[in-house]
Every structure is written in structure tokens, then in C-alpha cells.
């Protein structure tokens, strides 16, 4: 090991790639962080202390070989760093951009724990694979020979695509059924471009297409084609449909203004960024321009909505959340970014009726945090007679997502679901209650993260290969 290049956390401070200033970045949907220059990446990677027991790695859902690719980056051996990085992660440049690293790898880095500031693992991971794309090191998907088995994958989010990638490398015939007009799931239409630029997702989809994955877009399983027909066509089926049923919204007053579901708002915005015709955006229904916007919710979807509204030219943007900053589920990094961009957070405020008495806005009741519940989290309590009107021209609800009732929608009684409505499947093999049918990602876990969907998709591919009597060459983790 080039020891002089490593263990530099004492003399080299943690430094993220440059962030564009708020007044500039709030005018467009480009990513807010730049790329490391080569020297900077090597220097930051060199802060790693090469732990014998790397907690960063054990807290990465993919168990990425982080210390090794950090060392190779510090030594300028970038191509080797890329080979190691892509061996465990189907989309490293995507995870490097959008994993909540503060809760996963970086949050568990020993240097962070010792007060020196974590190694910037996510930014280095992004840099390695972006460089690989630039230098032409990302190879087309090839296999040692075509196999006769075929697999139908329902849903083209990260879970479905990670599985498709691994199966094609094994020579399996793969068809992805996607109800939308573009592949990529929430990476394409949910997550805004300022976190994940769309070219980054689209080049991966092209790579899969060129590698022989067949995409059937605009194909709603359960509508355009039955689940039974898909089962009849393929030797195995993977359900990777994500969770899309928005949690119950506050009741609008009769004849009052509409409450916009978060995903409708974000999808319209993403489509607009693709250059599509979006009538609901043009009409102003799903467009924040010139409006006073209130977003209800405290998770990452709410953060994406407020920051999208800023970029669309809203007059003001407020986020209502019934607990306080310390107790919100969204990433603190995203809250800080939103604040920098001019979003106002109204903590400890519970939204009530929308458009009450013909007024434009949301009635809000003030809250305080009471005694902790069994989980140790303080329970929010209403403060009596504290109701007031938060004026708004556009009210967006971002209260989370639940699974659609697949057995009913698809008419498949034998497909067992949990009490939360997620598809019941083994957490290692991803086998469901139906033989030859697997499930992965959000539809198995409930609303989660891209990195977990990738892990699930890779594990499902391994289990499917085992069903075909073959082992995968690439390990799932
Ligand atoms: P999805 O990505 O949801 O893909 C499922 C696909 O299945 C979709 O394309 C859908 O159209 C298709 N489909 C559904 N039903 C059918 C059917 N009947 N027939 C055919 N196709 C069907 N995670 C992070 O790690 N970092 C983030 O920053 C982040 N930000 C997020 C922001 C928002 C606004 C949202 C909503 C989520 C965010 N997530 C983030 C979570 C992450 O996007 C999901 O956990 C992940 O995409 C789940 O992957 P998946 O493959 O299970 O499903
Ligand atoms: Fe960290 Fe996510 Fe990369 Fe794992 S995949 S190393 S958790 S950024
Ligand atoms: Fe390096 Fe931090 Fe991982 Fe240790 S925990 S190997 S210092 S990145």
C-alpha cells in the first residue's frame, strides 16, 4: 500500500465537490454538486485509514469494497478502482449521487466517529464511475453464451434493472414490462434532476438495451397484459413494481382548491425537463410558477417538492411538518440545501383542512412535543386554540406511499402479501408464495432506497439462476 498516500485525515480536511451557489442552482434542474478534479479525488480518497474492520462497508447495503477502491483512487489507479466498484454495484454513479450516505457508509466511517469528518465515500464513488464512462471503460454487457431460459421483469426501477443486468450477463433472455413511457422507475420520474441528472439514468438504460434486454414500455401488467400471460411466457417472473399509492391526503373542503399529490407534481416537472408536452404543467395545475406553495410532509419526497417549486419560480415555498427539525425523517443534508435555496420550514405544525370557508390555503394547528412513546420518539400534541390559516395557491401533499393491492388488481389469489400490503417474499432469495415468482425493491420492503432495490435485484438474479440450475458469476454483494 502507498502508505504515504493514505491515512491523511489528520492533515487533509474533508472537502465535498464544489456546490453551486443557491442563487444559480435554484434557476435550473442541473445537479448542485460538481465533480472532483483528479487530484482532489485522490487527496480525499487518501483520507481513509484503511480500517481492518471497515464499518463503512458493513453499513453499505451492497457491502461495497470501499477501502480498496479508495486506496486505488488515492494511488491514481482509477481503472482498477472502477473494476472493483462495479463488481458489487450495478449503478455506482447513481448511488454515489443519491444514497443518504450520512445514514449508511459515511455515517459509520471511523474517521467521522473520531471527529475528523467522514471520508467522502459517495462523491469518490460517483467520480470513479463518471470517469469510467468518460474514458470508455464501461463495457457493453456481454455473456459467455445465450441461454434458453427467459425471465419477465415487471417494473423498470433500480430493482428490476439490477436483476435484468445480472441475468443478461448470464445469457438469460430478459423482457422488462414497464407501464410508463420511459424506463427507470422513480430514478426517471420521481427523483428530480438536481439530485440525479436524467442522462445518467438514460445511458444505463441504453447500455441494458444494447446488451439485449428487451423493454416493453407503455405495458401495464394487469391492464394491457395479464399477470397470468406473463407467467405463461417466461420461466421465472420478478415483481419489481415499487409502491405508488399516495397515503391519505387531508380532506379538501367542498368545492375548494385541490391538493396535489407529490408524485404527480414531481413527474410533471421531470417530464417537462425531458422536453415532453405536459398539459397539466402548461395549464398551471402542476406548476408552482408565481404561486405561494405549501408542501405537507417532512420526508425526502417533501424536500424534492419544495426544491422543485423553488426552481419553477414560486413566490414563496413553505414546508409544514408536525414534529421538529431533529425528529424529521428527511435527510438533514437535503433540509440544509432547501433552506439555502429559500425554503421556509414551519416546524410543529399540523395541517388541517384545505380551502376552509373558501379561503386559499391550509388551516394549521400548532403542536408541541410531548412524552416519548414506546419507540422513544416524542409524541406531537395539539396546542389548543392555536389554529391559523397558512395562505397558499398550491398545496402539495407528500405523506408517503403504500403498495397497490396487487393480488386484487392482477386477479392472483395465490400471491401472498404482508399486513402492510407489500408482497411477501424471502429476504434472501426473494421467492414469493408462487413458484418461479420473485419480488424485490419497494414492493417487497415498502418505500425504501435505490441502493436496497439494487441489492434485492442482484440477489433475486442469483436465486433465479439457482432455479435454472446455474450459479451467477457475479456475487450479489
Ligand atoms: P420503482 O423505482 O418505483 O420502479 C417501479 C417501476 O415499476 C416503475 O417504473 C413503475 O412504473 C413500474 N410499474 C408499477 N406497476 C406496474 C405494472 N402493473 N406494470 C408495469 N410496470 C409497473 N432513494 C434513494 O436512495 N435516494 C433518494 O434520493 C431518493 N429520493 C426519492 C425521491 C422521491 C420523490 C421518491 C418517491 C423516492 C425516492 N427514493 C430515493 C426512493 C427510491 O426511488 C425507491 O426506493 C426506488 O426507486 C425503488 O426501486 P424499485 O425498483 O423497487 O421501484
Ligand atoms: Fe455508500 Fe451507497 Fe455507495 Fe454503499 S452504495 S458505498 S451506501 S454511497
Ligand atoms: Fe476508510 Fe472510513 Fe471505511 Fe475506515 S470506515 S475504511 S476510514 S472509509
TrEMBL record:
Locate the transmembrane regions by residue number. Answer: none
Pinpoint the FAD/NAD(P)-binding domain residues.
151-457
GO MF assignments:
4 iron, 4 sulfur cluster binding; metal ion binding; oxidoreductase activity
Name listed for the protein in its UniProt record = Glutamatesynthase subunit beta
Identify the keywords attached in UniProt to this record, alphabetized.
Answer: 4Fe-4S, Iron, Iron-sulfur, Metal-binding, Oxidoreductase
Q: What InterPro entries has UniProt attached to this entry? A: DPD_II, FAD/NAD-bd_sf, FAD/NAD-binding_dom, GltD-like, Helical_ferredxn
Q: Which organism is it from?
A: Oceaniovalibus guishaninsula JLT2003
Its lineage reads: Bacteria, Pseudomonadati, Pseudomonadota, Alphaproteobacteria, Rhodobacterales
**Coiled-coil ranges per UniProt:** none
What are the residue boundaries of the Dihydroprymidine dehydrogenase domain, all occurrences included? Answer: 25-136
